[in-house]
Specification:
Layout lengths: L1 E5 L3 H13 L3 E5 L2 H11 L3 E5 L7 H10 L8 E5 L5 H9 L4 E4 L4 H16 L13 H71 L3 H32 L8 E4 H18 L3 E6 L4 E4 L1 H17 L6 E9 L2 E8 L33 H11 L4 E6 L3 E9 L5
Parallel strand pairs: 1-2, 1-3, 3-4, 4-5, 7-9
Antiparallel strand pairs: 6-8, 9-10, 10-12, 11-12
Helix pairs in contact: 2-3, 6-7, 7-10, 8-9, 9-10
Length: 403
């Protein structure tokens, strides 16, 4: 059985050739309607398969020419297209004399079955060939021009949307590039600063003869190295989270004890700025999760609530049962977060104050790690904030019922 494939796209022609050839058909190809008409008159194929959009004579014009000629009127024509894809397009295709229409991308199994059925039915006379002239020339040109205009309008809209997307993408790339520079500078700054301090205090301690001063310098050196260690730990945690290796070990967590321990650990930070920290924890409240990881989450939120607060401000921690989960919220009276920044709070390496000259330290990994931990526990985390009024961060983790 002989099949003619007509398509101006060489890749589509080659794919169609290999596909049909593998089914045992004798396949001939053409790149446009003019070439196809010449080959069809010579070869008399059993079936013509054609794309619509082609130079010189397109698929619809080819089909009309075949149906006007007595020698080719009985050759069935299948039309396919990636541009003419709505119901009105299909109606026009069938009215010019095609026996079937397919939208690209093709569903191969259905397409091959249809080819086989059409060839068999035409050979056995089970299908009557559509008569030519269903549409006269004027009517055809009018309908075809309407369909082309519709495609042109759709393409213009598509291009406009693409341009808008490109503009947004370009703006985002520029933003990402700026953030990358800030991130590199921030990471360098956050790693170098405590190390520089530690080295300075070591030098002072070495040359100091007064025991009290030497101990003070040593203490300050230790504090600087602890800050350095915290930055490195965040970088390692981020790398583990990125690879999905920060897996929680589920155990029973006493929420009250964990909260009290966290407040105690950060109490010196709050006391240094006269910030009052209070908590209200529901009695006998237990969560199910990794104690160290959840404590890390609470420490991060409490540390931020203190860091971004005002001198003499307040921080309140509330925890209770809610919908089968433990809900824990940290509320502060701090500087707040602009509305346009809220959507990116939990993104990796994001900081509300991202410039290298920012007032507050950090490399922007804390909240992204917090989000990863909470979601790994099957919970969620969210935030509300108003500039100048403070912020409220809440998260949920699974409730552990008392035994």
């Amino acid at each position: 059985m002989k099949v003619m494939v007509v398509d101006d796209n060489i890749n589509d022609r080659e794919i169609m050739f290999e596909l049909l050839n593998a089914q045992g058909y004798q396949v001939t190809c053409a790149s446009n309607g003019v070439e196809a008409l010449d080959k069809i008159r010579k070869l008399k194929p059993d079936l013509v398969i054609s794309d619509i959009m082609m130079p010189q004579v397109d698929g619809l014009g080819l089909c009309r020419e075949l149906k006007r000629n007595r020698e080719t009127i009985n050759i069935p024509v299948i039309i396919y297209s990636s541009s003419f894809t709505d119901a009105q397009d299909e109606k026009l295709v069938l009215e010019v004399g095609a026996v079937a229409y397919f939208r690209k991308p093709l569903e191969i199994a259905i397409f091959l079955k249809k080819i086989k059925d059409i060839i068999n039915q035409y050979r056995t006379g089970k299908i009557a060939q559509p008569m030519p002239g269903i549409l006269d020339e004027k009517e055809y040109l009018s309908l075809y021009s309407q369909r082309l205009m519709k495609k042109l309008e759709d393409k213009v809209i598509e291009l406009e949307n693409s341009n808008k997307k490109l503009e947004v993408a370009l703006s985002e790339l520029k933003t990402i590039d700026r953030l990358k520079d800030n991130i590199l500078a921030n990471v360098t700054h956050e790693l170098r600063t405590p190390l520089t301090h530690a080295l300075g205090y070591v030098e002072l301690a070495i040359s100091e003869t007064d025991d009290a001063k030497r101990k003070e310098f040593s203490r300050r050196c230790r504090d600087a190295l602890l800050r350095e260690n915290e930055v490195i730990a965040h970088l390692i945690e981020a790398a583990y989270a990125e690879k999905g290796l920060l897996k929680p070990v589920k155990e029973r967590i006493h929420v009250g004890n964990m909260t009290n321990e966290t407040i105690k650990a950060l109490w010196p930070n709050a006391q240094a700025r006269s910030i009052h920290v209070s908590s209200e924890i529901e009695d006998n409240l237990y969560a199910k999760g990794d104690t160290n990881q959840i404590k890390h989450v609470l420490e991060n939120l409490l540390d931020n609530a203190i860091k971004f607060n005002v001198n003499g401000g307040k921080v309140e921690i509330l925890a209770k049962r809610e919908d089968g989960m433990v809900k824990l919220c940290v509320t502060d009276t701090g500087i707040g977060i602009p509305e346009e920044k809220m959507g990116k709070l939990f993104e990796k390496m994001y900081q509300v104050d991202s410039e290298t000259t920012r007032k507050f330290g950090g490399i922007g990994l804390g909240l992204s790690i917090v989000k990863y931990i909470i979601e790994a526990h099957g919970g969620r985390i969210w935030a509300k904030s108003l500039p100048g009024e403070g912020s409220k961060f809440c998260f949920t983790i699974p409730l552990q019922e008392e035994t």
